[in-house]
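Problem 12. The chain below contains 307 residues. Write out its predicted structure in C-alpha coordinate notation.
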Amino acid sequence: MPAVQRVSTVSMPLSLDPFSGLRRLDLHDQASLSTEELVSVLGRSPELEVIVLGIVERNWSDNTAYPTTTVDLPCLKFLFLAGLQDDVLHTVAHITFPATTEVNLRLVGPSSSERDITRHCHSLRSITSVAQDLVFAYSNMADEDNYVISMSTPDERLTVSWEWDMEREDNAEDGQPSLRFELMNLPAVRSVRIVGLPQTACIAQAEWQRFLDLMPSLQSIEFATSSEPLTRIDVLSPMLEALSQPVAYPGKPNVVGLRCSDLRTVWLSDASWGPPDADVTQAFVVYVGARLRWGMRQEFRVDFSTR
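Solution.
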Protein backbone atom coordinates (compact mmCIF):
# COMPACT_ATOMS: atom_id res chain seq x y z
CA MET A 1 0.00 0.00 0.00
CA PRO A 2 2.50 2.64 -1.05
CA ALA A 3 -0.14 5.41 -1.20
CA VAL A 4 -1.10 5.05 2.49
CA GLN A 5 0.80 7.57 4.60
CA ARG A 6 -1.24 7.52 7.81
CA VAL A 7 -2.53 4.58 9.85
CA SER A 8 -4.78 5.11 12.88
CA THR A 9 -6.72 2.61 14.97
CA VAL A 10 -8.20 2.38 18.47
CA SER A 11 -8.33 -0.98 20.29
CA MET A 12 -8.81 -2.98 17.09
CA PRO A 13 -5.97 -5.46 16.33
CA LEU A 14 -4.25 -4.55 13.09
CA SER A 15 -1.56 -6.29 11.10
CA LEU A 16 1.18 -3.82 10.20
CA ASP A 17 2.75 -6.04 7.54
CA PRO A 18 0.99 -4.43 4.54
CA PHE A 19 2.18 -0.90 5.35
CA SER A 20 5.30 1.00 4.36
CA GLY A 21 6.33 4.59 3.69
CA LEU A 22 4.14 5.91 6.53
CA ARG A 23 4.38 9.48 7.78
CA ARG A 24 2.07 9.02 10.78
CA LEU A 25 1.30 5.96 12.90
CA ASP A 26 -1.47 6.14 15.55
CA LEU A 27 -2.13 2.93 17.47
CA HIS A 28 -4.27 3.43 20.58
CA ASP A 29 -5.16 0.88 23.29
CA GLN A 30 -3.29 -1.98 21.69
CA ALA A 31 -3.77 -5.22 23.61
CA SER A 32 -1.95 -7.53 21.20
CA LEU A 33 0.77 -5.74 19.30
CA SER A 34 3.45 -7.71 17.49
CA THR A 35 6.75 -6.05 18.35
CA GLU A 36 8.31 -7.70 15.29
CA GLU A 37 5.68 -6.10 13.06
CA LEU A 38 6.11 -2.76 14.82
CA VAL A 39 9.88 -2.67 14.36
CA SER A 40 9.48 -3.87 10.78
CA VAL A 41 6.96 -1.19 9.77
CA LEU A 42 9.11 1.48 11.40
CA GLY A 43 12.04 0.27 9.36
CA ARG A 44 9.95 0.50 6.18
CA SER A 45 8.88 4.06 7.06
CA PRO A 46 12.01 6.19 7.41
CA GLU A 47 9.99 9.35 6.71
CA LEU A 48 7.74 8.88 9.75
CA GLU A 49 7.03 12.21 11.42
CA VAL A 50 4.53 11.22 14.15
CA ILE A 51 4.24 8.09 16.31
CA VAL A 52 1.40 7.77 18.82
CA LEU A 53 1.39 4.37 20.47
CA GLY A 54 -0.65 3.16 23.44
CA ILE A 55 0.10 -0.35 24.73
CA VAL A 56 -2.28 -1.87 27.28
CA GLU A 57 -0.78 -5.35 27.53
CA ARG A 58 2.73 -6.69 27.82
CA ASN A 59 4.28 -7.28 24.40
CA TRP A 60 8.08 -7.19 24.63
CA SER A 61 9.86 -10.33 25.82
CA ASP A 62 12.06 -10.45 28.92
CA ASN A 63 14.66 -12.04 26.66
CA THR A 64 14.93 -9.03 24.35
CA ALA A 65 18.64 -8.84 23.56
CA TYR A 66 20.89 -5.79 23.93
CA PRO A 67 22.75 -4.16 22.37
CA THR A 68 20.31 -4.24 19.48
CA THR A 69 20.02 -2.94 15.95
CA THR A 70 17.93 0.23 16.05
CA VAL A 71 15.57 1.73 13.48
CA ASP A 72 16.62 5.20 12.37
CA LEU A 73 13.76 7.72 12.10
CA PRO A 74 15.49 10.93 10.98
CA CYS A 75 12.24 12.79 10.22
CA LEU A 76 10.46 12.08 13.50
CA LYS A 77 8.88 15.23 14.95
CA PHE A 78 6.62 13.82 17.69
CA LEU A 79 6.82 10.63 19.74
CA PHE A 80 4.11 9.63 22.21
CA LEU A 81 4.34 6.26 23.95
CA ALA A 82 2.10 5.06 26.77
CA GLY A 83 1.98 1.65 28.39
CA LEU A 84 3.66 -0.73 30.76
CA GLN A 85 7.03 0.63 31.79
CA ASP A 86 9.22 -2.08 30.26
CA ASP A 87 7.29 -2.03 26.98
CA VAL A 88 7.77 1.73 26.62
CA LEU A 89 11.46 1.44 27.45
CA HIS A 90 12.04 -1.41 25.00
CA THR A 91 10.30 0.56 22.25
CA VAL A 92 12.40 3.67 22.88
CA ALA A 93 15.55 1.56 22.94
CA HIS A 94 14.80 0.18 19.47
CA ILE A 95 14.58 3.52 17.65
CA THR A 96 16.83 6.49 17.01
CA PHE A 97 15.47 9.97 16.37
CA PRO A 98 16.68 13.59 16.20
CA ALA A 99 17.34 15.71 19.26
CA THR A 100 14.60 18.04 17.98
CA THR A 101 11.87 15.39 18.40
CA GLU A 102 9.11 16.27 20.86
CA VAL A 103 8.80 13.34 23.28
CA ASN A 104 6.00 12.39 25.68
CA LEU A 105 6.32 9.09 27.56
CA ARG A 106 3.83 7.67 30.07
CA LEU A 107 5.12 4.66 31.96
CA VAL A 108 2.67 2.53 33.94
CA GLY A 109 3.47 0.00 36.62
CA PRO A 110 6.77 -1.39 37.89
CA SER A 111 9.68 -2.62 35.81
CA SER A 112 10.12 -6.38 36.02
CA SER A 113 13.32 -6.46 33.99
CA GLU A 114 16.54 -7.38 35.78
CA ARG A 115 18.45 -5.27 33.25
CA ASP A 116 18.70 -1.52 33.06
CA ILE A 117 16.95 -0.90 29.75
CA THR A 118 17.36 2.85 30.13
CA ARG A 119 21.06 2.60 29.21
CA HIS A 120 20.01 1.59 25.70
CA CYS A 121 17.61 4.52 25.15
CA HIS A 122 20.36 6.50 23.46
CA SER A 123 18.31 9.05 21.50
CA LEU A 124 16.21 9.97 24.52
CA ARG A 125 19.26 10.27 26.74
CA SER A 126 20.83 12.59 24.16
CA ILE A 127 17.82 14.90 24.65
CA THR A 128 17.73 14.70 28.44
CA SER A 129 21.49 15.21 28.74
CA VAL A 130 21.34 18.80 27.46
CA ALA A 131 18.24 19.95 29.38
CA GLN A 132 19.09 22.82 31.75
CA ASP A 133 15.73 23.45 33.43
CA LEU A 134 13.23 20.92 34.75
CA VAL A 135 9.63 21.04 35.99
CA PHE A 136 8.83 18.37 38.56
CA ALA A 137 5.31 17.46 39.72
CA TYR A 138 3.20 14.97 41.58
CA SER A 139 -0.51 14.62 40.88
CA ASN A 140 -3.15 12.37 42.41
CA MET A 141 -4.65 9.58 40.36
CA ALA A 142 -8.40 9.11 40.41
CA ASP A 143 -8.28 6.44 43.12
CA GLU A 144 -6.02 8.68 45.27
CA ASP A 145 -3.91 5.68 46.32
CA ASN A 146 -1.29 6.24 43.65
CA TYR A 147 0.45 9.26 42.21
CA VAL A 148 1.72 10.25 38.83
CA ILE A 149 5.13 11.83 38.95
CA SER A 150 6.25 13.78 35.93
CA MET A 151 9.44 15.46 34.80
CA SER A 152 9.36 17.88 31.90
CA THR A 153 11.21 20.75 30.32
CA PRO A 154 9.48 24.14 30.71
CA ASP A 155 8.41 24.14 27.05
CA GLU A 156 7.01 20.58 27.49
CA ARG A 157 8.88 19.33 24.44
CA LEU A 158 10.10 16.59 26.76
CA THR A 159 7.71 15.01 29.26
CA VAL A 160 8.19 11.71 31.06
CA SER A 161 5.75 10.48 33.70
CA TRP A 162 5.46 7.41 35.88
CA GLU A 163 2.52 5.95 37.77
CA TRP A 164 3.79 5.65 41.31
CA ASP A 165 2.49 3.26 43.99
CA MET A 166 3.86 5.08 47.04
CA GLU A 167 2.12 2.89 49.60
CA ARG A 168 3.72 -0.25 48.19
CA GLU A 169 7.33 0.87 47.90
CA ASP A 170 7.99 4.10 49.75
CA ASN A 171 9.83 2.35 52.62
CA ALA A 172 12.33 0.58 50.37
CA GLU A 173 15.93 1.34 51.29
CA ASP A 174 16.66 2.68 47.83
CA GLY A 175 13.24 4.22 47.26
CA GLN A 176 11.25 3.08 44.25
CA PRO A 177 13.67 0.68 42.51
CA SER A 178 10.99 -0.65 40.17
CA LEU A 179 10.57 2.79 38.59
CA ARG A 180 13.38 3.59 36.18
CA PHE A 181 13.93 7.27 36.94
CA GLU A 182 17.43 6.79 35.54
CA LEU A 183 15.81 7.20 32.14
CA MET A 184 16.12 10.92 32.83
CA ASN A 185 19.85 11.48 32.45
CA LEU A 186 20.10 15.13 33.55
CA PRO A 187 23.75 16.12 34.03
CA ALA A 188 23.22 19.67 32.72
CA VAL A 189 20.10 20.63 34.71
CA ARG A 190 20.71 23.80 36.71
CA SER A 191 17.24 24.53 38.06
CA VAL A 192 14.22 22.47 39.04
CA ARG A 193 10.77 23.93 39.65
CA ILE A 194 8.43 21.81 41.78
CA VAL A 195 4.79 22.50 40.91
CA GLY A 196 3.05 19.63 42.69
CA LEU A 197 3.68 17.63 45.89
CA PRO A 198 2.07 14.49 47.33
CA GLN A 199 -0.97 15.24 49.45
CA THR A 200 -1.01 12.19 51.74
CA ALA A 201 2.67 11.33 52.28
CA CYS A 202 5.99 13.11 52.09
CA ILE A 203 8.58 12.33 49.47
CA ALA A 204 10.90 9.97 51.33
CA GLN A 205 14.58 10.75 51.79
CA ALA A 206 15.48 7.74 49.61
CA GLU A 207 13.40 9.19 46.77
CA TRP A 208 14.97 12.61 47.11
CA GLN A 209 18.37 10.92 46.89
CA ARG A 210 17.42 9.24 43.62
CA PHE A 211 16.01 12.43 42.11
CA LEU A 212 18.91 14.61 43.19
CA ASP A 213 21.45 12.08 41.92
CA LEU A 214 19.99 12.61 38.45
CA MET A 215 20.98 16.30 38.61
CA PRO A 216 24.56 16.62 39.91
CA SER A 217 24.91 20.19 38.54
CA LEU A 218 21.74 21.51 40.21
CA GLN A 219 21.98 25.11 41.42
CA SER A 220 18.39 26.10 42.26
CA ILE A 221 15.32 24.34 43.68
CA GLU A 222 12.01 26.19 43.61
CA PHE A 223 8.88 25.07 45.48
CA ALA A 224 6.17 26.75 43.40
CA THR A 225 3.43 24.84 45.22
CA SER A 226 2.05 24.58 48.74
CA SER A 227 3.23 22.03 51.30
CA GLU A 228 -0.32 21.73 52.64
CA PRO A 229 -1.91 19.63 54.01
CA LEU A 230 1.54 18.45 55.19
CA THR A 231 3.72 20.65 57.36
CA ARG A 232 6.55 22.63 55.87
CA ILE A 233 9.21 20.86 57.93
CA ASP A 234 7.85 17.41 56.97
CA VAL A 235 8.23 18.32 53.29
CA LEU A 236 11.65 19.97 53.56
CA SER A 237 13.44 17.68 56.04
CA PRO A 238 13.79 14.60 53.78
CA MET A 239 15.16 16.77 50.97
CA LEU A 240 17.69 18.52 53.21
CA GLU A 241 18.75 15.20 54.73
CA ALA A 242 19.31 13.80 51.22
CA LEU A 243 21.36 16.88 50.31
CA SER A 244 23.44 16.41 53.47
CA GLN A 245 24.48 12.83 52.64
CA PRO A 246 27.99 12.38 51.19
CA VAL A 247 28.23 10.59 47.85
CA ALA A 248 30.93 9.71 45.32
CA TYR A 249 30.99 12.22 42.48
CA PRO A 250 29.93 10.97 39.02
CA GLY A 251 32.92 9.60 37.18
CA LYS A 252 35.15 10.14 40.25
CA PRO A 253 34.56 7.17 42.57
CA ASN A 254 37.39 8.22 44.89
CA VAL A 255 36.09 11.76 45.32
CA VAL A 256 33.37 12.14 47.94
CA GLY A 257 31.23 15.19 48.70
CA LEU A 258 27.66 16.32 49.27
CA ARG A 259 24.96 15.87 46.66
CA CYS A 260 24.40 18.79 44.31
CA SER A 261 27.50 20.59 45.51
CA ASP A 262 26.70 23.55 43.22
CA LEU A 263 23.34 24.22 44.90
CA ARG A 264 22.98 27.93 45.63
CA THR A 265 19.29 28.59 46.27
CA VAL A 266 16.16 27.00 47.67
CA TRP A 267 13.25 29.24 46.71
CA LEU A 268 9.90 28.80 48.48
CA SER A 269 7.98 30.92 46.00
CA ASP A 270 4.40 29.87 46.79
CA ALA A 271 2.76 32.36 49.16
CA SER A 272 1.52 29.56 51.43
CA TRP A 273 5.04 28.92 52.73
CA GLY A 274 5.04 32.27 54.54
CA PRO A 275 8.00 33.39 56.69
CA PRO A 276 10.21 30.63 58.16
CA ASP A 277 9.38 29.23 61.58
CA ALA A 278 11.90 27.90 64.09
CA ASP A 279 11.81 24.31 62.76
CA VAL A 280 12.38 25.34 59.15
CA THR A 281 15.14 27.75 60.12
CA GLN A 282 16.91 25.08 62.18
CA ALA A 283 16.68 22.54 59.35
CA PHE A 284 18.44 24.91 56.96
CA VAL A 285 21.02 25.82 59.61
CA VAL A 286 21.88 22.13 59.98
CA TYR A 287 22.21 21.77 56.18
CA VAL A 288 24.46 24.82 55.92
CA GLY A 289 26.58 23.34 58.72
CA ALA A 290 26.98 20.15 56.69
CA ARG A 291 28.06 22.20 53.67
CA LEU A 292 30.72 23.96 55.74
CA ARG A 293 32.01 20.69 57.20
CA TRP A 294 32.52 19.43 53.64
CA GLY A 295 34.40 22.55 52.63
CA MET A 296 31.59 24.09 50.55
CA ARG A 297 32.18 27.83 50.89
CA GLN A 298 29.89 28.98 48.09
CA GLU A 299 27.05 31.32 48.97
CA PHE A 300 23.77 29.58 49.80
CA ARG A 301 20.46 31.26 50.48
CA VAL A 302 16.84 30.42 51.22
CA ASP A 303 14.41 32.71 49.42
CA PHE A 304 10.88 33.16 50.82
CA SER A 305 9.83 35.84 48.33
CA THR A 306 6.75 35.02 46.26
CA ARG A 307 6.38 35.24 42.51
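Discussion. The chain has a mean pLDDT of 87. Students who got a different answer should revisit the alignment rule from Section 12.3.
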